[in-house]
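Title: Prediction job returns without error message
Component: structure pipeline
Severity: low
Priority: P3
Assignee: unassigned

Description:
Job completed but the reporter wants confirmation the result is attached to the right record. Sequence as submitted:
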Amino acid sequence: MDPAVQGEILSGEHALIQAQAHADTATVERLLSDDFHEIGSSGRYFGKAAVIDSLTRSVVLDFQLQPIEWVEVDADCMILVYLAEVTRRRNNYTLTIKACRSSTWRREAEGWRMLFHQGTPVPDTGRRDD
């Protein structure tokens, strides 16, 4: 597996989280494939437009990412599986969720872009502070 590709994809993961922290729609638009879909840690299903629309409703305060596994589907498609702990502020509360996440990245004409993402909560680790 090409370490340069792994670095590019990890950089994309971090850039997407930073973009959420700053409501940077241009970065999200650039890094998500046009046919992107997500099953969030809430269990809800989102398309690209819904993800971009949600940027102003939730602020990422902190993010920790620990890679677990890389799956090379083929030369133009990689899956990254990792543990993440994300702290967000929404309205008047802060929520920290630890989840096992997977991201499918596809090499497109524009570079590596995320095609699919899923977050599955790790039990008993969520914390809500009012």
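Comment from assignee: result matches the submitted record. The beta strands are 32-39, 45-47, 59-74, 77-90, 93-108, 111-121, 127-129.
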